Amino acid sequence: MYSNRVYQITVHFVLIAMAIAAAFPFLLLISASLTEEQAIIRNGYSLIPDQFSFDAYVYLFNQYSLILRSYGITTFITIVGTILGLLITTLIAYPLSRNVLPFRSFLSFFVFFTLLFNGGLVPMYLVYTDLFHMKDTIWSLIIPNLLTNGFYILLMRSFFSTSIPGEVVESAYVDGASEWVIYCKIVLPLALPSLATIGLMLMISYWNDWFNGLIFINDGSLYSIQNLLNRMLSDVQYLQQNSLSGQTAVASSVPLASVRMAIAVIGVLPLIAAYPFFQKFFVKGLTIGAVKG
């Protein structure tokens, strides 16, 4: 009894220490974004701001219309991309998990092969711009990520193969259910834990994606929040370089160091705020999707 109590206290202490270690960088990021520029230059970064200042956020939200529009675009591509990604992943993974599928091993290897090799940046750019004409369109921020999720397909295939009893599918066949009915009303409800996990990874990848916008988007009205903040960061760096060259009038009015931190906070804060709600759904999915004997 005593040893079990010591073990529980030790485990809780380790987990609390890990939680603090994980939260510390983000708390330091927020603190730096709220610190006056000269205090950062003079004393460096600290967990508690030496001198509070909202200058960095004022600088960013002076362009609030651009930020709100970019948030809207990012929210749209995140929602649509996550839903389509889950749909495509399950529609490919479920047949691959069935032993009755012809050429099952070859198709599985074909999916696995995409994890090892790709056509490269230039062919991808030419295909999407010249063949599909996605240059400066919202779909260029969604489609490329949909076609490169081989890892998610293999992960979902393994879940279907090991966690969905074959007897359940066979009994549905006996009752006269079609493949589409089995997929929608049996397979997907049982796969909620895996769907929640892959959906979270897809959501994070779409929210944090900046690369597709960098190579496919020139129209500023289609910038996602990551591309817009990256552009703002480049502008700040440009002002800093000019200040080193003697053009200090404009650069001195911009809190360069704290703006960088504020940009990072704005980019990641909505995702962190949404995560507890998604986590609740994730736990619910674990409960609903459990197979009980």
Query: Whole-number radius of gyration?
Result: 24 Å
What is the chain-wise order of helices and strands? Answer: HHHHHHHHHHHHHHH
* Total of DSSP H or I helical runs spanning 4+ residues: 15
Looking at the structure, what is the overall shape? flat
What share of residues is helical?
over 70%
Uncertain parts: 285-293
E-strand count: 0
Q: Report the β-strand fraction as a percent range.
A: under 5%
Could you tell me how far the N terminus lies from the C terminus, measured between alpha carbons in angstroms? 32 Å
Question: What's the main sheet like?
Answer: none
Give the mean pLDDT.
80
By helix and strand content, what is the structural category? Answer: mainly alpha
Detailed description of the structure:
The chain has 293 residues and is mostly helical. The chain is 76% helix and 0% strand. It is built from 15 helices and no strands. It is flat. The chain starts with a helix and ends in a 5-residue tail after the last helix. The C terminus is likely disordered.
Offer a few descriptive terms.
flat; mainly alpha; 76% helix; 293 residues
How are the elements arranged and paired?
Layout: H1 2-33, H2 37-43, H3 55-61, H4 64-96, H5 104-116, H6 121-131, H7 143-146, H8 150-163, H9 166-174, H10 179-190, H11 192-208, H12 211-216, H13 225-244, H14 248-251, H15 256-288
Helix pairs in contact: 1-15, 3-15, 4-8, 4-11, 4-13, 5-8, 9-10, 11-15, 13-15
Can you give me a brief rundown of this structure?
The chain is mainly alpha-helical and 293 residues long. Helices cover 76% and strands 0% of the residues.
